[in-house]
Design goal:
α3 packs across α5 (about 140-155). This protein is of the alpha+beta class. The chain has 7 helices and 8 strands, in the order αβββββββααααβαα. A hairpin with a 5-residue loop joins β6 (about 65-75) and β7. The protein is elongated.
Length: about 260
Amino acid sequence: MRNLPKIAILIIVLVGIFALTPFATIPAGYRGVITTFGKPVEEVYSEGIHFVWPFAQTMHKVSVAIQKGEGDGDAASKDLQIVHTKVAINYHVRPDAVISVYRDLGNEPGERIIAPSVQEAVKAVTARFTAEELISQRAVVRNEIVAALKERMDRHGLVVDEFSIVNFNFSKTFNEAIEAKTTADQLKMKAERDLQRIDVEAKQKISRARAEAESLALQRAQVTPELLHLREVENQAKAIEKWDGHLPTTTGGAIPFINLKSGN
């Protein structure tokens, strides 16, 4: 029991030492804002160790590293289609604007500025495009949203690093209409390809028929009396080669093939 007062005194001394520590550390990716009795000092403190007056001053850390935010919401397109948009954004606090971010935004830029700014920009830009244009001109929509965001965020010392439209979702009726249009376009393209194929095949048939007709005409032009006589002589020569030297045993008319003349 006698040791209890000593232990209590030691604890009080240690607490006093920690409470009176006149130094504060700013880690990497942060900047420091010192408040003197709650009032921010007009100086931004970089990474490292800094002196502060015990009890009178407090060091507050403000992140200047890239932070990620996501959000989604509904908006109306130019043709009054309800569009559910999901977006993602990377941003950071400008180091020279740390004091205003701490003082004006309560060191909560994501909730105070980023979320409402993204929703406002998405709604404003979405209203300038039809639902179909939102899909076909996605890059243009994204760039206009970024331009609207930068204008507002720059006033509060915030910088847009990356922004992307994760997805557009439309009503069931609109999705069905898009699907029907896509199917119709595909059928139209197929019909056009079929017509082109039929046209090519017809032209090929005409070309083959013309070539055959020209070939027959050429062959007819080449058939002369001399050619016919030559073919007759060739046929008789082949018949003689096949004859075995015997006359037929039965006769019913003229002896075919050749005319035999006896020599003197």
